[in-house]
Amino acid sequence: MSPVFPMLTVLTMFYYMCLRRRARTATRGDMMSSHRTIVSNSRTSPLNAEVVQYAKEVVDFSSHYGSENSMSYTMWNLAGVPNVFPSSGDFTQTAVFRTYGTWWDQCPSASLPFRRTPSSFQSQDYVELTFEQQVYPTAVHVLETYHPGAVIRILACSANPYSPNPPAEVRWETLWSERPTKVNASQARQFKPRIKQINFPTNLIRLEVNSSLLDYYTELDAVVLHGTKDKPLLSLKTALVDMNDLEDDDYEEKDGCEMDALNKKFSSATLGDGPSNGYFDKLPYELIQLILNHLSLPDLCRLAQTCRLLHQHCCDPLQYIHLNLQPYWAKLDDTSLEFLQARCALVQWLNLSWTGNRGFISVSGFSRFLKVCGSELVRLELSCSHFLNDACLEVISEMCPNLQDLNLSSCDKLPPQAFGHIAKLRSLKRLILYRTKVEQTALLSILNFCAELQHLSLGSCVMVSTWKFFTQWPPSLFVPMGEVYMTHSTIYISIYFYPTFELFLP
């Protein structure tokens, strides 16, 4: 071997270390300037022309302001070329999410937040869009026409929704993320965040939003994906150098990646027996449990690898009374549920919203988990969980006898007959059926058998004729601002219809 080769290797590593050190000590402006230069060079390369395309189709979303039977203010307006941009203002041809501000979380029907939700997870809604061609993304532009600033996270998926053969592995990668910030302007803008490069092509992009700081509804007009058909030259030469890794916005990736540890590192098989646990041996068991209550789920996963004593505390079922798995939707699968199963025998609040889609969670995996962990469940959040089917709701009705709060919002793939199982949940007090295919027969059965029901959300339920529904239900009605209050025996029921105008017809 030539003596020059080892020297080149050493010099290459030295150059890489100097580059990382310089980037970490540089100002944020210097880093952005450097990153801008690199991106500019990759775009102007004649060997790999850039492809620019608008969204072809909206394939999934969590909510929208409009009706399912209309195009006004619905997420479907994000597909195709812009309808409004660069104009500013309130236009029905744009995509609008269901809420803004904090009033939604402060109204009497709002549910309490989950404990142990990582501060890095701020997403409230999402929309997923497909594009015609798979590309290595170089830029994602969001055309915002009214009250911009809601988009806080952009992700890319390795799966091709138009491929006849499903991939063996589906990966989500964060292209850009930022904490919610208030934009003091309501005019239209072309939002162009600087994204990081990924090592797979994509034609499935996901936007996540947080509207809590907005003064009014945000309106989106179109999404533009820039990319190259072949892997950019920059990725091939400097795959180890990621300028976005040096920014402050990588906070939320850490928790997401740690979900892999649930599958691999929560076992005590490799933990050795030490002579002493130090000062932890002097602390009461309850005090250590109280301290660990402040840790997030990934932090518990890390801590469980330190010693047998802390592993025992981290696996105590009392640590999992409230279990919020929504922040880890991109990683959570059947294997994750299997490893959590032994620790969740006492779980009372469980949040599986947004999880399990595209084959991550199977019906059998979900059923096995509930058969072990469902007996104490009081609250179950399953918003946008598209793996659910008739068998899943049957398992819920049989394994969760104490369930009081069930959220099935935007589970639009559930068949109408599945909702009949809900009537078996006699302790139910709160039921969210927003954007589902529940039918009138199932609703009447639920109202007849769930005598303790206090809050029922039926927004955008296209299979229910609200006026006909109430003509068959005799209790008195009162209609303020789209809400209907009914006396059900001795229970006060709040039923929310929004945006439903049929209720006011004569």
Question: What does the model show?
Answer:
- With 506 residues, the protein is an alpha/beta fold.
- The protein has 2 domains: 197 residues, Sandwich (Jelly Rolls); 240 residues, Leucine-rich repeat, LRR (right-handed beta-alpha superhelix), CATH 3.80.10.
- 25% of the residues lie in helices and 20% in strands.
- The protein has 14 helices and 18 strands.
- The strands form 2 sheets. Strands 1, 2, 3, 4, 5, 6, 7, 8 and 9 form a 9-stranded antiparallel beta sheet that branches. It has a 9-stranded mixed beta sheet with strand order 10-11-12-13-14-15-18-17-16, with no helix packed on it.
- The longest helix is centred in the N-terminal third of the chain and has 22 residues.
- It is globular.
- The N and C termini lie far apart (91 Å).
- 35% of the residues are buried.
- The C terminus is likely disordered.
Topology:
Blueprint: H1 4-25, H2 28-43, E1 50-54, E2 57-61, E3 95-96, H3 103-106, E4 125-146, E5 151-157, E6 172-177, E7 189-191, E8 202-209, E9 219-228, H4 233-237, H5 251-257, H6 260-264, H7 285-292, H8 297-303, H9 308-314, E10 322-324, H10 334-341, E11 349-351, H11 363-373, E12 379-381, H12 390-399, E13 405-407, E14 430-432, H13 440-449, E15 455-457, H14 466-471, E16 477-478, E17 483-488, E18 491-496
Helix pairs in contact: 10-11, 11-12
